[in-house]
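REQUEST FORM: STRUCTURE PREDICTION
Request ID: SP-0412
Submitted by: Lab K.M.
Chain count: 1
Length (residues): 380
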Amino acid sequence: MNGNRKRVGLVVNPVAGMGGAVGLKGTDGALVEEARRRGAQPMAQKRAVTALEALQRAEQTIEVLTCAGSMGADAAGAAGLPHRVVFHPDDPPGAADTRNAVTTLLRENVELLLFAGGDGTAREVMASAAAHTPVLGIPAGVKMHSAVFGVTAMTAGDAARAFLDSGCPETALIPAEVMDREPGENGEPVGSPVLYGYLRVPAMPRLMQAAKAVGASDDAALGGALQRLADQVQRDGLCVLGPGATLLRLKNLLGATGTLLGVDVFDHGRCVACDVDERQLWSLVRDREARIVVGVIGGQGFLFGRGNQQISARVLARVGRQNIDVVSSAAKLASLPGGVLRVDTGDPAVNASLAGYLPVLTGSARQTLCRVIDADTEPA
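STATUS: Completed
RESULT:
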């Protein structure tokens, strides 16, 4: 190792993101076993490997200090990065292992702490990280409302590389919000995201996502847009309605209770499948024409890949770009970083097929043409 060696700590939450495709809203606590029962597959390691491969291009010599097995060493090995194990988690690992791993890595004086997970993982990291610790999240969870994550796994690696190559100056760090939803009685998150605190992240707004904006404008124009969509859904055949408060209003207009954080399917205006997982959704759209209606995540601009992983790449490819409707308040669109919408489906070909310009319905007779970008290849 040369004098420019940089020590990077790595923690991977191996169960992060497993619940998304199977219709769960997270994988915290007891939800892990339910996700496994539904056939969920791990995805955090794949995201971590993507970030570490980007990190490999750093000008500095990188030394990765990490946890044994699925909490880091497996990902570092798959990415081809030299690494040293300094923490051995329980089998299977739990939330306490994340906190203890962070404590151990900080004793090793790492210059940047990378973690792969979602909002729940960010909270565990915050519980053990020192106030001055440079931290960067690799987005791998079901929900990522916090501002501590790279826009995608690849841009998280790019941000880490740029920070390390810059010499890791204190002036290159800014506080970023850690936000999460409280769990309900069944363990799934409910309500609006809550601010839990801050972590210090590299000041790279083009590569880092913003915190989810809450309390977006609920004006009469948006109500008109939703009524227009309700009329359309009643006329059309199969319609897939995504999660979020805006879409819940649409579901209610159609006379359905609907799920705030879930994906519901309507046929000529009648709810035929509530809170579906990816496999259920695929079975419904595989042999029928369908439309998809989604909202926009405030402050981040994501259409797909955040909180609606049930609408997978293969579902999007089958439905087609021409059959996607987007609805949002004008105020929410105006607040988006770079004024763009983002997609992060995990499939580069599907991301590319969605890129370009999409009309976003903002009123009963009003729409805004918005640029859609592949969040992996074209940061705003």
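NOTES: Residues 37 and 93 are 18 Å apart (CA to CA).
Reviewed by: T.R.
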